[in-house]
Amino acid sequence: MNIFKILSLVASFNGMKSAKCAIGVLTALTVSTAPISSQPHKVIGVAANDVLNMRADIDYSQSVSDSKVVGTIPHDADDVAVTGISIDVNGAKWREVLYEGKKGWVNARFLKPTSLYLETPEALICGGTEPFWDLTINEGGGQYSTPEIEDPMQLAYQKFTQGAGRTDLWGHYLGSVDGTVNVAAIVRYTEACFDGMSDFTYDFEVLLLELGERRAPVYGCCRIQY
User: Fold this and answer.
1) How big is the CA angle at 98 (ends 54 and 208), to the nearest 5 degrees?
2) Rg of the chain's alpha carbons, rounded to an integer?
3) How many CA atoms lie within 13 A of 174 on its CB side?
4) Mean pLDDT, the chain, integer
5) What is the pLDDT of residues 76-126, one digit of tens each?
6) pLDDT tens, position by position, 181-209
7) Residues 6+ apart with CB under 8 A from 156
């Protein structure tokens, strides 16, 4: 449910006389519901008789022209999904996107968020190095893996909370089915997270807390899972 749908619900309640009351209901709905979908983008700066090309494997190419075109996006598309990964190619920022079931890379200067409101990703794939670890987060729960454990640990989703006073900060709380392990994944939108092993830049950084009795907090990056 996006912010506009929530506001519509708020407006429909009888007896709401003030903005303060509406904000209270909005806050309660935002905290209690599952994370909403990631922010859609629209195409800008493309001529009406042209399309935006989606290219493959741009991170392995010597130049953009070497990358195969795997799809096209109309000049007026407004439902382009970004995955939260970008890379610099010869001074230009390129974003990995998903459009009509196809993934590819497009020049970021042709994309713009459809709203100034930053929406919360519905599902994330996070990871870190030294120590190496991976965590998936979605409405159904999560899965944690590390070389220290033989099999990936299945986690149940417990709670989602918006950061206090911030629209770019979220807390995802998960726990093992037997209740022995609880995880707090504090995610923040920065567009500046580096994994230390590639040239990619990730939109989201994450601090993973409370995994085991004596385990220290670990830091990593996240991308959106589709």
Assistant:
1) 125
2) 20
3) 24
4) 81
5) 999 999 999 999 988 899 999 999 999 999 999 999 999 878 888 879 999
6) 889 999 999 999 999 888 999 999 999 99
7) 141, 174, 175, 176, 177
- Confirm or reject CATH 2.30.30.40 for domain 40-113, answering yes or no: yes
Give the three-state DSSP class for 34. coil
Task: Give the whole-angstrom CA distance, residue 176 versus residue 143.
Answer: 9
Name the burial class of residue 83, with classes exposed (0-12), middle (13-18) and buried (19+) by CB atoms within 10 angstroms of its CB.
Answer: buried
Indicate the pLDDT class of residue 224, thresholds 50, 70 and 90.
Answer: very high
* Contact yes or no for 40/80 (Cβ under 8 A): yes
**Does pTM top 0.85 for this prediction?**
no
| Rounded Cα gap, residues 33 and 13, in angstroms | 18
Which of these, 59, 27, 82, lies nearest to 197 by C-alpha position? 59
